[in-house]
Known about the structure:
The complex is a heterodimer of chains A (157) and B (414).
Chain A: E1 3-7, H1 17-27, E2 38-42, E3 47-51, H2 60-64, E4 70-73, E5 76-79, H3 89-93, E6 99-102, E7 107-110, H4 119-123, E8 129-133, H5 139-146
Antiparallel strand pairs in A: 1-8, 2-3, 4-5, 6-7
Chain B: E1 2-6, H1 10-22, E2 27-32, H2 44-48, H3 64-68, E3 71-75, E4 78-82, E5 87-90, E6 95-97, E7 100-103, E8 107-109, E9 122-124, H4 128-137, E10 143-147, H5 151-162, E11 166-170, H6 183-195, E12 199-201, E13 206-212, E14 215-220, E15 225-228, E16 230-233, E17 237-239, E18 255-256, E19 268-270, E20 275-278, E21 285-286, H7 291-305, E22 318-323, E23 326-332, E24 341-347, E25 352-359, E26 362-369, H8 376-383, H9 391-397, H10 402-412
Helix pairs in contact in B: 1-7, 8-10
Bound molecules: flavin-adenine dinucleotide and iron/sulfur cluster (2 copies).
Amino acid sequence: MDKALVIDVGKCTGCRQCELACSYEHTGTFNPARSRITVFDFHEKARFVPYTCTQCDQAWCQQVCPVGAISNENGVKVVDAATCVGCKVCTIACPFGTVNYEPASGKVIKCDLCGGDPACARACPTEAIVFADVAVQGFEKMRAWAEKTDTAPQASA
Amino acid sequence: MHHLIIGAGPAGVRAAEALRAYDPQAKITLIDGEGEAPYSRMAIPYFLSGKIGEQGTWLHRPLEFYAENGIDLVRGRAAKVDAGTKTVTLEDGQSLSYDKLLLASGARAVNPPVEGLEGDLVHHCWTIDDARAIEKLAGKGARVTLMGAGFIGSIILEALVMRGADLTVVEIEDRMVPRMLDETAGNMLKAWCEKKGVKVLTSTRIGGVYEGGGELNIALSNGETLKADLLVVAAGVTPNIECMDGTGVEKRTGVVVNARMETSLPDVWAAGDCAEGCDFSTGDLSTLAIQPVAVEQAVIAAKNMAGIEAEYHCALPMNVLETLGLVTTSFGKHDGLEEGARATLLDADEWRYIRLEFNDGKLIGAQTVGHVSMAGCLRGLIQGRMPLGPWEDVLKTQPHRVAEAYVDLSRGVS
Lengths: 157, 414
Ligand SMILES: Cc1cc2nc3c(=O)[nH]c(=O)nc-3n(C[C@H](O)[C@H](O)[C@H](O)COP(=O)(O)OP(=O)(O)OC[C@H]3O[C@@H](n4cnc5c(N)ncnc54)[C@H](O)[C@@H]3O)c2cc1C
Ligand code: SF4
Ligand code: SF4
């Protein structure tokens, strides 16, 4: 994976354009409930956090899938909706909570980087979400934050 | 280098893939003991409900995947392992030598000590062969009794209802899924099933099963007799480790493994339902028999077999179950510790429940009914042993805010 979603929490104003764009891109409707990216609102801290899959290396979701519905395309983990049986085991295996069951379709949904041109990054007016080289400063930091909860062997207590 | 893997279920297949990635030059042989294409048991309910065909249960389609990745599929069952000469003898007499061996032979369904479980109208629901038999017997309107409303039983339940069977569930404990759900959640699930037209008898034991005139008479501990066209038994499993007899390998219920998935024998690893390794929630050894643990252990074993050191962080009990539209989950020490603290939130009218268990400023267990969003965060919080800080008090009164807590703690970067 050469490029990734780099999220700068400090720039997010909570406008939720990303959620709408994601939902529209994947479902043809403006329905934040069906978005693969979620903006968390920590109002006590006056901070918004857009949150989605970091396409982690461990790929817990992919390895657990009983029917091979999740592929790894150049590091991007993509759910094939036609193959998914909706068993949801990936939704509990991913320790980040970023692959989710969608009752409306009976399948799971997760970020697929829109095939290489993520709608959320295009929609974000403040560049809080940019699709950039993974080498760009920020991505590793972001992944490291996410992986504070990493359950991988190296982090064993 | 020859890596030999006994068993082509999820653990064996994921190990073979990982070995191919980490040890590109090695020879890899995968022994498929069921004479089928390597498949996932987990997909069986979807086969039974008609959502997928048999091929839909395969771990890889098409089957050429194995040859293309240099994985030799050998059909047969391992009868005996000789760790001294490093050979595995198959039931047909064929002998295979190895440099490194992975036991990934899984588990099999067992019967409780009840009379009459041998006939043609009684089946487990563990293999694809079992599923084929059930498919024939559990047609529309067929009277089906399910013995056991544990996790596996409750998964099959939905498939049987979707086939149009007239279903009665008999569970010895006082609620459904007793090892994963507390009384509140387990009885919510029971009430839900009853609302959907399924008869659920809890605290009820099947005393004996008698076949006569092409049907079954199933005697219950409450004095009643059920008539059925099929009895499905989902009352427990046991590891397939007989081929290790005589090797002197350390075993309890399963073959004992350390954090590197090594057994007590040199050059022999074990992973999945046949292995007994450390349990995150108790610190003791256990066999959990769940898919995430099977595949994660398999990848750890494969790395070590390929010479890359890796340790497993211990197996976390975790399950997600959908029963006729109601989703339940359970993680870790879902019933908590005496010295710990608890938060519960029940909305019986909306069929929603959440219970969190805390100890030492951390989340140690959880169970939910009717919540689907961001379930994985519960794993992240528990297995990451994340100190909750100020979120502990928040979650104690508002347990439904776990995902927020997780995102703030991992990414909020205050
Ligand atoms: C109906 C059903 C639903 C399930 N649903 C879930 C679920 O929702 N979530 C979840 O986490 N888990 C679920 N499980 C459990 C899950 O399927 C198992 O944990 C998983 O299959 C374990 O994988 P494994 O590779 O260790 O063992 P297995 O899948 O049992 O594979 C082992 C393979 O080895 C073969 N074998 C055994 N002995 C030998 C021998 N001597 N020689 C050669 N081959 C041998 C077996 O025949 C088998 O093919 C379900 C199981 C069933 C039956
Ligand atoms: S959904 Fe979760 S497990 Fe899958 S790639 Fe994304 S972060 Fe990793
Ligand atoms: S829900 Fe779908 S993608 Fe996820 S593990 Fe099950 S079949 Fe695979």
